[in-house]
Amino acid sequence: MPSDSLRVRLGVDRPLILDGPTGSELERRGFRSHETLWTARAAELSPSLLADVHRRYLHAGADLVTANTFRTTAWAARQAGVPMAKARSWLEQSVALAREACAELAEQRWVLGSLAPLADCYRPGDTPPDAILKTEHARTADWLAAAGCDAILVETQGSGREARIAVAAARPSGLPVLVSFVPDSSGRRLLGGDALLGCAQHCLELGAIAVLVNCAHVEVLRLALAELEPLRRQGCPIGAYPNAARMLIEGGEPTWTADEPELAAAALAQAGLDFWQAGARLLGACC
Q1: Closest to 221 (Cα-Cα) out of 255, 186, 250, 193
Q2: pTM surpassing 0.85?
């Protein structure tokens, strides 16, 4: 099974290349995001564009494609006044497009299903109560497994509480579970204040098979990877997919300072080499 081959591949000492940003790239190419759903509707409204984004990353060398399921959840649908069935349809179409793009290549490729925070990624204080998290993440994980994902990526987690619940909720799906955290500027803690290393260890105990950090500038992720070094020494695959911009929290609100495109591209390329030398084996890019 593809999920079994991914488990084996994670144990091989050579890089697994993640894709780059999907939502940001869709927006760059003209797709209009929804305030609540973001790019969840892309598989229905612009399937050829979404497929082309996946295809370009694959031809650039990506081993892993993350399906456009960041906001294809019943929770997000309710917030937008959309029926749950529509959210599941978007999820299924998104996974299908990613699978079709992977099938065009002769070499093995894998599709990750994105299991993202229910609320705003950069406001972990808005995270819903535990009971809601358990119900919503379990439902989405079941949908991702039924749609044909090879693994579930619990990603962009700024709340340790939600990360732990999401990993636990995804495990019954039977798919491999990877977890990725958003660190604060120290690289040692999550945006919500939880200790990065402690949260990562807990998620491994709950069944995650790899730990990543994402959605922060390369300089922050360098610090975060150093914080995760004890896990790497214990044999846990670690990884990173940085942003091309810096985030600052001012008055509780995130603001972004973008590097010049040429500088950002060079920094991301160098970061991949640096992260590899630091022990990361899953490498890609975020927003």
Answers
A1: 186
A2: yes
* pLDDT for the residue 252: 65
Query: How many residues comprise the chain?
Result: 287
Environment class of residue 204 by beta-carbon count within 10 Å: exposed (0-12), middle (13-18) or buried (19+)?
Answer: middle
Distance of CA 160 to the CA centre of its chain: 15
Cα of first residue to Cα of last residue in the chain, in angstroms, is 31
Beta strands in 39-106 (DSSP E): 64-66
Parallel/antiparallel/unpaired status of strands 210-217 and 238-243: parallel
Hey, what's the torsion of the CAs at 6, 93, 22, 201, to 10 degrees? -40
Contact 203, 213 (CB under 8 A): no
Region of 61 please: left (phi>0), alpha (psi -120 to 50) or beta: left
Q: Can you tell me whether residue 277 is helix, strand or coil?
A: helix
In angstroms, rounded to a whole number, what is the distance separating the alpha carbons of residues 135 and 48?
Answer: 32
Say how far apart CA 210 and CA 225 lie, in whole Å.
Answer: 13
- Which residues, including other chains, have CB under 8 Å from residue 4's CB and lie 6 or more apart? none
pLDDT of residue 262: 65
Query: pLDDT by residue (tens digit) across 66-87?
Result: 999 999 999 999 999 999 999 9
Q: Burial, 47: exposed, middle or buried (Cβ in 10 Å; 0-12, 13-18, 19+)?
A: middle
Contact 215, 121 (CB under 8 A): yes
Token duo for residue 88? 């599941």
For residue 81, count other CB atoms closer than 10 A to its CB.
Answer: 7
Phi first, then psi: give them for residue 135, nearest 5 degrees.
-65, -50
- Residue 250: the pLDDT is 62
